[in-house]
Design brief:
The chain folds into two domains: 34 residues; 78 residues, no CATH class. Helices cover 74% and strands 0% of the residues. Helix 2 packs across helix 3.
Length: 113
């Protein structure tokens, strides 16, 4: 086996290992996210309303389904708000209308038994 073949085999092995690593990490994230609680959903909603912090928690919240039907309905509604909100002003992640709709969902979550 020549040098080029050896390097090629090592690269393919590394790529395959990386793909397996990310597949397992995604599966673990999906399982963890499926178990989200009301507290974690509330934190994600609060995160997107706070302009002083990154919205990673909200972005992750939108990405993966949640097992609890009520919390999943909130996730879907928020996803629709993000999808349909008018484009935000420069430097903003979401329009004020979209934020107002998220605030209403947050109030509902806090008041829901």
């Amino acid at each position: 086996m020549g040098f080029g073949s050896t390097v090629g085999a090592l690269l393919l092995t590394g790529l395959a290992g990386g793909a397996v690593f990310f597949a397992l990490a995604n599966r673990a994230t999906r399982r963890r996210h499926a178990e989200y609680s009301r507290t974690e959903v509330e934190a994600a909603l609060q995160c997107v309303l706070d302009d002083t912090q990154y919205h990673d928690a909200f972005d992750l919240f939108l990405t993966w389904p949640i097992d609890d039907p009520y919390l999943e309905s909130i996730r879907k509604r928020c996803h629709e708000i993000v999808r349909t909100s008018q484009p935000p002003m420069a430097g903003k992640d979401m329009s004020e209308d979209g934020k107002g709709r998220i605030r209403a969902i947050l109030r509902e979550l806090r008041e829901h038994p």
